[in-house]
Amino acid sequence: MGAVLSFVYGSAAYVFFIGTFLYAIGFVGNVFVPKSIDTGASGSLAQAVIVDLVLLGLFAVQHSAMARRSFKQWLTRTVPPAVERSTYVLAASLLLALLCWQWRPIPEPIVWSVKNAAGAQAVWAVSCLGWAVLLISTFLINHFELFGLSQVASGLTGSNLPKPEFRTPLFYRYVRHPIYLGFLIGFWATPVMTAGHLLFALAATGYILVGIWLEERDLVAQFGEQYHRYRSQVGMLIPSRRAQ
Description:
Strand content: under 5%
Strand order of the largest sheet: 1-2
C-alpha cells in the first residue's frame, strides 16, 4: 500500500509540475495565460520590487537547498526515499505557481521593444528554441528520473534504479548545462523587455550562476576526475568543445 500511495503521490506531483511549467512559459512570454509577467495589478514600484524579489528568493532558496545531499538525507528520515525527488518537484512547482500568481508587473520603463514584425517573430522563434533545448535536454539525461517518476515506479515494482553514470549525450557534448542555457534563452529572448521582465531575468540569471556552482561542486564530488576533465573540455553555458 505504501508503494501504491508513493506512486500516486509522485504521479500527482509530476502532473502538477507539467501544468506549472507550461504556465510559466506562457507567463514569461506573455502569451496564452490569464496573468503574465507584464499584466495584472502592480501597486507602487517599491512594493512591486519587494514582492517580486521575495518570490524569486523563495524559489531560489528552495530549489538550491532541497537539492543538496545533506537536505536529502534529512528529508528521507521523514519521507520514504522513493518520494524524495517527487517532494522536491512538488515544492518547486508550488513556489513557481505562487510566483506566477503573486508576481507584480513593472511595465515601465520599457528597456527594449522590437517594432519590426519579422524581427519580433525571430525573437519569439529564439525563445521557443530555448524552451525546446531545455525540454529535450531533460530527456537526454533521464526526464522521468529527474522529476521523480522513475523512483516511485521502481518502488511500486520492487526494482532498483541503475546507479548514476556520467554521460554526455548530444547537447551535453558541447555545453555542460543545456537545461540552464534553455532557461536563459527563454528568459531573455523577448521582443518587449519591460523593467519587471528585466528584474526577473537578472535575478534568475544570478540564481542560475549560483546554482551551477553548487551543482558542479556536487558533480565533482560524485564523479571526481571524470567531471574535472569534462569541465575543462566543454563550455559551461556557451557551447564549445576544446580538445585535450
